[in-house]
Amino acid sequence: MTDIFKKHKKAITTGAVVLGLICAFVIVYNLGKGSAPKADVQIGMPGPYEYIEEVTGKDKTGDIEKIRDVLGKMINSNSYFQINNTEDSYQVALFNTKGQGFVQDTKTGSISIFRGDNKSVLYTDTVELVYDINVLQMLDFGLELVDEGVSKMYKDTAVEDIEKGKSENRLDVRYVDIVGYDNIEKLYSKIDTSFGELMVTNLKANTIDKGDVTLRLIYVTSDENQFSGGCNIIIGEEEYSIWNFDGYIELYDWELGKEWFDYDYDNIENTDELKKMLTRLVKELDDMMHKYAEDNNLPDAEEKEENPIVREEADGHYHEDGTFHSNTPITDTNEDNPIIKEDSTGHYHEDGTFHSNESVNNDDSNPIIREDEEGHYHEDGTFHPNN
Questions:
Q1: Tens digit of pLDDT for each residue in 49-70?
Q2: What tens digit of pLDDT does each residue of 31-46 get?
Q3: CB atoms near residue 246 (< 10 Å)
Q4: What is the pTM of this model?
Q5: Can you list the positions of beta strands (E) in 87-200?
Q6: 214: Cβ–Cβ under 8 A, 6 or more apart, which residues?
Q7: Which of 56, 175, 227, 376 is the most buried (most CB within 10 A)?
């Protein structure tokens, strides 16, 4: 959040400190995520009004209990997820079991270190301690407003029709609509009263002449206790996506050191110590990410930089050198170099070599052994993309 109780401003550069960590985050998430619902539900796209129906009585009570259960599991875990803001912008978010979090915007480079006490240390071109709210808190507070009778809950009947008849992993989509500036202020005031006032003041500055305003929180749950969430804003008859995330993965535990709470943010004389604090935290998180990647047979940031992934499939991925890495190895009787993937064109061994059932061309020096829409593979294992 910006413009929130800004105090002492000191210039600081943080972008280079965390580039490697972001790369590790993205790799682990893309290759390791297994908690996201699998269905044609685009939570970033507003649902038509005619397909939204209020949930009341026992149904509402049951829905809130279900959402609280799966959301609570995410809040109380070491969750990593990516928050989509626009088509070309997202944030990497990593939280621990104490409600502390590391969030960085990949477009602007800004970093928020959530301390778990409704404040975060915000690194932009300055460093400051601010009141702040994270996306998990917003979703949790939205349910509280329904309990208090401030907001109503709705279900998406269009998704319900799509999911009808499924016996496994059925998806449910629920909305909590927070209507009007006064009620929106109640949401943010759960952090601090002055924070709520300021957030609504900023909101009014951008929307007051454009019609009534509603914040719509989105909750997507499944029979397997998976969870995704989002937030849209409705201005008049138009609805826009603010943020959303599609599932999460649980990593290893971590914790902020006492220096994040003991530092005197009211009297920032220089930023050297703040830089050191961030560098130490990034190193700890980076070590944790490497350990997680190693334990789960996932490539880390260094591997991607030296040999980038050029194609991903459901069962594995291909590197620029043509080697294939399976998510689930399929071993054979060759213990020294087992087959890890087979298809109609041939098979891949654990060392990344591909053995075609039939050569595609007659280049005796290094024949092409497989072609697809992405590019082609030579006998020596190298991959040559079309673009």
A1: 667 889 999 999 999 999 999 9
A2: 444 444 443 344 444 5
A3: 22
A4: 0.70
A5: 89-95, 101-105, 111-114, 119-123, 127-131, 152-156, 171-179
A6: 177, 178, 179, 180, 233, 234
A7: 227
